[in-house]
């Protein structure tokens, strides 16, 4: 875990040394061109020889360059990979003025350190045996460096550990598989350079290799992430969660670290829809599989809030698994999977700690944090929060369905996406008048 402390005397000393480093950089002459240790690619080679590297991470600084320092370690191999993938350009002198943004320093030895500074400076400085060299870096390099920090046991999957699913956060409605009790039916083995998926019933295995274990920044915006769901979604992830990291496995599978919780995301792809998310499971070590996070969902039919379990199947017998929960103002929307192209949304009031409404349908959306603005679809019809039918869409054939709803920019209309081996889009009026809209 990161250890947060207020600036102490020796931290101030480090800051003073950093200032001296800046001064040295202004005085640096071409002689340091002959020092191999100041080449960042050579730093990468040095890192490979180290099991762990000390880190000093300062997320924010005041105008004097001071800030709270966090101390932790990263693996030498992880930092080596970051530097190997970097494309830095050497610069003669650093920018003028103190860095009032974040910085992260990796200490290889007492006299050997590399510091990476946050944008807008976007620079790195290598300090070795009294000499320094500055580089201009890429816009994502600082975030990639911060992503190396290990802040929990789940943040770095344990090599040799076996994991199982503890919850199903999302299952594509086209799937015929119901993740009862959040069980994917598989176990997952973390190898040194691979990821093995084993079917617990048949023993069949899928080995994904090679895997380079190195957490990366979440590569999508909320809009890009949401577009990968054919029906429903886990929306606004950057607003709901504080820290999301990404670990690619192969083209159809990756891991996410979401505020210390490990998610396994599987995707499918076809010529009509492109790549889309098929399932999302939470993973825990097999020995801890019975542990249910407080305030969350176990992925079966149990929703837990403030230590109290609510069996959603008792509210609606059609619910066979939970597909996620989303905060909306003073409410939590608990989404239950009820079959292909059908869900049950239960509205939970966190003040009274009671459910106040159930909505059967799909594609539930709302404006801002006001659930009363919600609209949703049920087969070919579209309803508002009170259950009033706003429109009935003429679907081209039995295989077609309403894939997605979205509010128009002026919020006076509703954009309806119809799936029919392709995507047709229509716009209907949601001003309070029901109407029939034919798909083009």
What does this molecule look like?
The longest helix is centred in the first third of the chain and has 19 residues. By secondary structure, the chain is mostly beta strands. The protein folds into 4 domains: 144 residues, Dna Ligase, domain 1 (2-Layer Sandwich), CATH 3.30.1490; 138 residues, no CATH class; 84 residues, no CATH class; 51 residues, no CATH class. The N terminus and C terminus are likely disordered. It contains 7 helices and 30 strands. The strands form 5 sheets. It has a 9-stranded antiparallel β-sheet with strand order 12-11-10-9-17-16-15-14-13, with no helix packed on it. An 8-stranded antiparallel β-sheet has the order 1-3-2-5-6-7-8-4, with helices on both faces. It has an 8-stranded mixed β-sheet with strand order 20-21-22-23-24-25-26-30, with no helix packed on it. 13% of the residues lie in helices and 45% in strands. It starts with a strand and ends with a strand. Strand 28 and strand 29 form a beta hairpin.
Please name the defining characteristics of this protein.
single chain; 440 residues; mainly beta; Dna Ligase, domain 1; 4 domains; 9-stranded antiparallel β-sheet; 8-stranded antiparallel β-sheet; 7 helices; 30 strands; elongated; disordered N terminus
